[in-house]
């Protein structure tokens, strides 16, 4: 088993989960800055009025803002040649619609990209990773307004122009399909679309994310506006630098029918089309698939949000590569007696053949191979990247400071094997970035205790810790993987 020469190995983070410095150097408030911490048993809550006695994890996160040189040096030590990170929109345009960009924010990312280039690490930049400026939510209701399309494209033009010689690989929207998931209530609409009702925007008390109000028609309208914004950004990026590789990003929850009951087969097909395929089809093929009309009819959606000229924009702004996150798989059934399980932005039916993490996410490396083959067949010849894959776990620090995370190594080993087998199957896979290569704030639970990293960060859910970094056993293992191009597992 071998990976192609020049294969991209690295890791992925999001600004709101790692940077901290949430109002430093002119940055404006972003949606995640309103989210309080939680844990596996206590749901995260939203509070738009800053409470000095509450704990907002993104406000300090792991302080990458002041530790980026140290962190990138550690990434280079592991042998990376790619680093996926996001730009926080609010660092560039603090209110989203400012007359001029914030120079201090632009300069920060200049320094980060320069540090990457110093070690021959390619930046892979997510333009909007659940980081919509809060002012765009309060003034425009996020992407519900077509005005936000123009604001996003202006933001993209600014960073494309500024970093055209430093960044080649770009992704428009992180996990754009999450509003279509099972847990697609207010949480995903707010994260991904900046979509909230006035009643929740002006709330004085904490609100559970699951209780944030969600309107189906508004969701599809805002999602369509993101599709248009993405397509226009792709066009603009290619005008600024024809060598840019600009991709989409899908949260792929692989779905199986629980039984061989034909009704389960049809149910799984519907869920797969809705949750995994529709957004990819629009990005890659430049049009809504035929089954979209049936979905809209079933959900009572009026597609009048598609205006004259929109279909041409989608056709002209198709992506150069397909990227996706993969953590787990779920089952689908029409039978009422099936046991359910938790997951990433999704609830599903438990698969009796799989084990799960402490958070109930089912571990399915074979499913990654299946998914890669499915995507390659659906979109022939399009380069593919796995840009998130990871294992959240409780890590124990020994008295000597060491962390023996064999469970994490085992998870990654099996998934990388599956990728190698997919490459042998003929899949045009060009890269792999693990999620959370350094411990960070969990997006779903808002806790530090759910650790993903090869690098341990001394930061805890009670706000203690000195932010010091240390290497886990998995650090040395992944170093061998990267330096051997996946041959030493």
Kindly summarize this structure in a few lines.
This protein is an alpha/beta fold and 489 residues long. 37% of the residues lie in helices and 13% in strands. The N and C termini lie close together (11 Å).
Blueprint of the fold:
Layout: E1 8-12, H1 15-18, E2 45-46, H2 64-77, E3 82-86, H3 89-92, H4 103-118, E4 122-128, H5 134-140, H6 147-162, E5 169-173, H7 186-193, H8 198-201, E6 207-208, H9 216-240, E7 245-247, E8 250-251, E9 254-257, H10 262-285, H11 292-299, H12 310-316, E10 322-325, E11 329-332, E12 340-341, E13 348-349, H13 365-378, E14 384-388, H14 406-425, E15 429-435, E16 455-457, E17 469-471, H15 473-483
Helix pairs in contact: 2-4, 6-9, 9-12, 13-14
Summary keywords:
489 residues, alpha/beta, 17 strands, 13% strand
Characterization of this structure:
About 35% of the residues lie in helices and about 15% in strands. The chain is of the alpha/beta class and about 500 residues long. It has a nine-stranded parallel β-sheet. The radius of gyration is 21 Å and the shape is globular. The termini are close together.
Low-confidence stretches: none
Amino-to-carboxy terminus distance? 11 Å
Global geometry: globular
Q: Which sheet architecture does the biggest sheet show?
A: 9 strands, parallel
Determine the mean pLDDT. Answer: 94
Strand content: 5-15%
Number of strands: 17
């Amino acid at each position: 088993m071998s990976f192609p020469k020049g294969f991209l190995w690295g890791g992925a983070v999001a600004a709101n989960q790692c940077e901290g410095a949430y109002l430093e150097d002119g940055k404006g408030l972003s949606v995640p800055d309103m989210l309080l911490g939680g844990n596996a048993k206590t749901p995260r809550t939203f509070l738009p009025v800053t409470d000095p006695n509450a704990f907002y994890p993104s406000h300090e996160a792991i302080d990458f803002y002041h530790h980026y040189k140290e962190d990138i040096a550690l990434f280079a030590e592991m042998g990376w040649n790619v680093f996926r990170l996001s730009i926080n929109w609010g660092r560039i345009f603090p209110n989203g619609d400012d007359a001029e960009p914030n120079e201090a924010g632009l300069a920060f990312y200049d320094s980060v990209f320069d540090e990457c280039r110093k070690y021959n690490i390619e930046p892979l930049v997510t333009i909007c990773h659940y980081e919509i400026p809060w002012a765009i939510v309060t003034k425009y209701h996020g992407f519900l307004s077509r005005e936000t399309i123009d604001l996003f494209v202006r933001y993209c033009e600014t960073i494309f122009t500024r970093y055209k010689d430093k960044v080649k690989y770009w992704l428009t929207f992180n996990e754009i399909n999450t509003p279509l998931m099972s847990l697609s209530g207010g949480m995903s609409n707010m994260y991904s679309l900046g979509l909230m009702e006035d009643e929740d925007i002006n709330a004085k008390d904490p609100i559970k994310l699951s209780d944030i109000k969600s309107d189906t028609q508004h969701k599809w309208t805002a999602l369509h506006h993101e599709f248009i914004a993405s397509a226009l950004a792709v066009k603009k990026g290619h005008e600024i630098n024809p060598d840019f590789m600009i991709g989409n990003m899908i949260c792929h929850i692989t779905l199986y029918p629980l039984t061989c009951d034909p009704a389960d087969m049809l149910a799984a097909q519907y869920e797969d089309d809705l949750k995994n395929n529709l957004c990819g089809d629009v990005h890659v093929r430049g049009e809504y698939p035929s089954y979209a009309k049936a979905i809209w009819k079933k959900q009572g959606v009026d597609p009048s949000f598609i205006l004259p000229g929109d279909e041409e924009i989608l056709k002209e702004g198709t992506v150069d590569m397909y990227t996706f996150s993969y953590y787990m798989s779920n089952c689908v059934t029409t039978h009422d007696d099936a046991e359910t399980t938790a997951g990433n932005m999704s609830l599903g039916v438990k698969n009796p053949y799989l084990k799960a993490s402490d958070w109930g996410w089912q571990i399915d490396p074979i499913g990654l191979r299946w998914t890669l083959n499915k995507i390659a067949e659906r979109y022939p010849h399009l380069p593919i990247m796995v840009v998130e894959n990871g294992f959240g776990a409780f890590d124990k620090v020994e008295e000597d400071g060491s962390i023996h995370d064999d469970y994490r190594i085992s998870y990654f080993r099996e998934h990388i094997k599956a990728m190698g087998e997919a490459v042998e199957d003929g899949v045009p896979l060009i890269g792999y970035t693990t999620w959370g290569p350094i411990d960070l704030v969990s997006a779903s639970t808002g806790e530090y205790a759910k650790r993903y990293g090869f690098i341990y960060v001394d930061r805890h859910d009670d706000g203690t810790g000195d932010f010091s970094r240390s290497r886990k056993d998995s650090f040395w293992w992944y170093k061998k993987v990267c330096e051997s191009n996946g041959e030493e597992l």
